[in-house]
Every structure is written in structure tokens, then in C-alpha cells.
Amino acid sequence: GSSLLTGPEGLMAKERENLKRLKCLRRYRQRYGVEALLHRQLRERRMMATEGGGQQAHTTRSSQRCLAFLDDVRCSNPSLPMTRHCLAHICQDVNQTLFKPCVGSEDVPCAKPVPVTFSEEPSCPLHLRLPPPMYVPEPSLPVPEELEVPPAELYLSAAELQPTESLPLEFSD
């Protein structure tokens, strides 16, 4: 914008007015002086307060990893949002109420975390107990071994099927 004012030909009055408006719009709602200093300090205090919370805000990459240990080795999976454990180890957190371990079956025990539902025993898809089928097939009727042959008197012969009266030509096929 400032390079336009230094040109040899200069600006016309209308162009100068438009340039002045553009500069005013650029500075609109920007803080200057003491107001800008106080706003920056407030923003810094808010950042320090959220970082200092620690438990509520996970700001560093190390705090986003799961806290569970397997054979003295820390789990490297990312933690679930707002928690300190990954999906595989979320049941180790005693304060959480959204997941329960799968009860499994007598043959195959299972401890996979399953979201809590309205059922008493939440289970993973592998151990899900299906309800009994609602459709019960009707008993079939007994089929006779041999079908009875109807008497031959019920059938008409070809001679009996011939018309007895003479029909017009369009029906004589």
C-alpha cells in the first residue's frame, strides 16, 4: 500500500480515499499500547494455567501415552481422550466407568475391554450370547407314500373334445 504513494504520477482523490479505508479496515479491532500488553499477559496466564492443570489437559506428547506396564515395559499405545490408558488397558483405571472386561465363557476366559451397556454381563462380539430364535417352524403335514390315481372316466377323449356344431371360420382352429 505505501508503494502506491511514492509513484511519480501519484494517486487520484478517489484512490486515496479507498486506500485510507483499506488501512482503517486493516487496523480494525487490533489492540495497541497498554491494551495490547494486558491482552498478551492475560493470554500467557491462561496458557500457563491450562498447562499447570496436568490431569485435565494433555499438552505434551509423553502424557498422551498409556501408563500401563507389561513386563516392566511401558505401553507405547496412545491413550484415549481424557484418560491415561489406551483401549487395551483402560480397565486398569479404577476411576473409569465406561468399560468393563468381557466375562468370556468357561472354556475361553477373556478380559477384552467392552463398553458398558444395559446388560448385566457385557461381552465382546466373540462371546456374545444370542437370544433364542423367535421363529419356530410349523410341523409339516405327513405326505402319503403313493398318490391315488383318479379314475379314467374323468378324462375326455379327443373325439369328445371336437365341437358338435359347425363354428365360423375364425373359431375353427
What's the arrangement of secondary structure elements?
Elements (H helix, E strand, L loop, with lengths): L1 H4 L7 H15 L6 H20 L15 E2 L2 E2 L24 E3 L11 E3 L42 H4 L12
Antiparallel strand pairs: 1-2, 3-4
Describe what you observe in this structure.
- The chain has four helices and four strands.
- By secondary structure, the chain is mainly alpha-helical.
- Among the domains are: 12-51, no CATH class; 53-86, no CATH class; 97-128, no CATH class.
- The strands form two sheets. A two-stranded antiparallel sheet has the order 1-2.
- The longest helix has 20 residues, at 34-53.
Key words describing this protein structure:
6% strand; two-stranded antiparallel ribbon; single chain; 173 residues; ubl conjugation; nucleus; 4 strands; mainly alpha; 4 helices
Task: Give a concise summary.
It contains four helices and four strands. With 173 residues, the chain is mainly α. Among the domains are: 12-51, no CATH class; 53-86, no CATH class; 97-128, no CATH class.
